[in-house]
């Protein structure tokens, strides 16, 4: 099985969600099913069917998270040598050479990506173009809106 890169924070978020599902959500839905069963005829009991459906979603999400965690390779970028190279987990400051706009992205695993929070997936076009490059390099990124040139202004191991 291929290992999936994940940051320490990403792993912690998944473990927290798994704990919430197992210790809070699962018991809550089990109680809801038991309560709905007490109401009698299950064929016409909407509460029962809704609770069973919710149970299916919870169990599916638990399996999904456990699978992701078992296949994960947690990378703590703070423990890696600072070489100035763009690698998984670093925070990269970029200068758009056309607009002089500065942006900062952290390169994370696919499940952790959130562009509004400044986290981009390691498989995104920007991250793929940046990986292996160094501070000061100019990188051409192919985007749906056309090619964009960025200069790597900084690489931080946060």
UniProtKB/TrEMBL annotation:
Domain Transcription elongation factor GreA/GreB N-terminal: 4-74
Annotated ranges, domain Transcription elongation factor GreA/GreB C-terminal: 83-156
UniProt cross-references to InterPro entries, sorted A to Z: GreA/GreB_C_sf, TF_GreA/GreB_CS, Tscrpt_elong_fac_GreA, Tscrpt_elong_fac_GreA/B, Tscrpt_elong_fac_GreA/B_C, Tscrpt_elong_fac_GreA/B_fam, Tscrpt_elong_fac_GreA/B_N, Tscrpt_elong_fac_GreA/B_N_sf
Gene Ontology BP term (one): DNA-templated transcription elongation
Summary of the function given for this chain in its UniProt record: Necessary for efficient RNA polymerase transcription elongation past template-encoded arresting sites. The arresting sites in DNA have the property of trapping a certain fraction of elongating RNA polymerases that pass through, resulting in locked ternary complexes. Cleavage of the nascent transcript by cleavage factors such as GreA or GreB allows the resumption of elongation from the new 3'terminus. GreA releases sequences of 2 to 3 nucleotides.
NCBIfam families xref list: greA (TIGR01462), PRK00226.1-2 (NF001261), PRK00226.1-4 (NF001263), PRK00226.1-5 (NF001264)
Stated name of the protein: Transcription elongation factor GreA
Species the sequence originates in: Bisbaumannia pacifica
The organism's taxonomic lineage, starting at the top: Bacteria, Pseudomonadati, Pseudomonadota, Gammaproteobacteria, Oceanospirillales
């Amino acid at each position: 099985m291929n290992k999936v890169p994940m940051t320490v924070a990403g792993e912690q978020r998944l473990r927290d969600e798994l704990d919430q599902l197992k210790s809070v959500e699962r018991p809550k839905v089990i109680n809801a099913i038991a309560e709905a069963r007490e109401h009698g005829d299950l064929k016409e009991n909407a509460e029962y069917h809704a609770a069973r459906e919710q149970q299916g979603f919870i169990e599916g999400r638990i399996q999904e998270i456990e699978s992701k965690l078992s296949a994960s390779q947690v990378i703590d970028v703070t423990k890696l040598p600072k070489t100035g190279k763009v690698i998984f987990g670093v925070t990269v400051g970029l200068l758009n050479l056309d607009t002089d706009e500065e942006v900062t992205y952290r390169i994370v695993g696919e499940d952790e990506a959130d562009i509004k929070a400044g986290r981009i997936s390691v498989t995104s076009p920007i991250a793929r173009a940046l990986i292996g490059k160094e501070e000061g390099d100019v990188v051409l990124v192919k985007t749906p809106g056309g090619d964009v040139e960025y200069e790597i202004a900084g690489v931080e191991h946060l």
